[in-house]
Amino acid sequence: TGCIPSALHLAGITKTLSWPRSIDALAVNSRTPLLAFMVDEQPKPLLQIAPWLPSRRQPSCLEARLRSLLGLMGSLLLLLYLLIIGALLLLLALPRLLLRLCLKPAAGSFGMVVEYAYALRICRLHVNIMRTVQTRFMKRPYHSRFADLRTELLTGSGPCFIHAVPCLGDNFCYVLVDGSHPSSSGLPTMVVDPCDANAVENALEYLASSFYATNGGLRLEAVLCTHKHWDHAGGNEQLAARAAQAVAQATEESEASDTEALNFLHPLKIFGGLEDNVPGCTHPLQHGDTLRVGSLSLEAIAAPGHTVGSLKF
Questions:
Q1: Cα(267)–Cα(181) distance, rounded to whole angstroms?
Q2: How far is it, in rounded angstroms, from Cα 42 to Cα 216?
Q3: What is the pTM (predicted TM-score) of this model?
């Protein structure tokens, strides 16, 4: 008799019973058999959470046990899945950690790659791809405009005009014009880091005819290089050859020097770091050396780091 109340409780029967002292007395006092009473009694529906939701009912004992069993199995499977994935991540992280430890000494010496290997032609591949995208797909000759931009720097000897000329994929060449000495051969001019000789020459011709035609145009006298890499000094030798060609043509045609907006000094002076092996360098410089172009005087300041012989001016 002790287990029957528990069975009634688990079945969700909330009706209050006056439990007799014996089963025989229950059979005598009630015409309804006990098992029939347990089967016929329905669980009360649960209260609605909201009026627009369907009514709920209390799950039966079998449903509750089945739901508990399925929940336990699902949680165990989920736990097993997490353990397997975590173990795989740990196993995959160990080789990565070992590779990083092996890579660290090489990465610390990456400056050797920049110093020696970056000067190779193979390292220009990414720039060629960028230039192809700019010219063919973006329909832009260069990455920035320059034709309408000019900066004036006031110096003790007179004005100095500066133009930033876009080159390659994202580089700039800087044109410095001495505005204090106009002459028939043009204003003394120097360029800094002419990585793309064709772009620099086209820009100089445009600037000479647009900004300085009344001053006799421009006369390129010097090239300044901050360091030896091709994406800064790649146009040095081509500009020097172009200067020799222009002077030879001007000699053959005596009037050419008077009609050309862009003239060249030959031999073209190319300045670079003494320890940097700059392509076409004719005037190697050390820290503290000075150079003059027209009335402009510049001092070389050693800046080793990117390359051993890098300079600032």
A1: 20
A2: 109
A3: 0.64
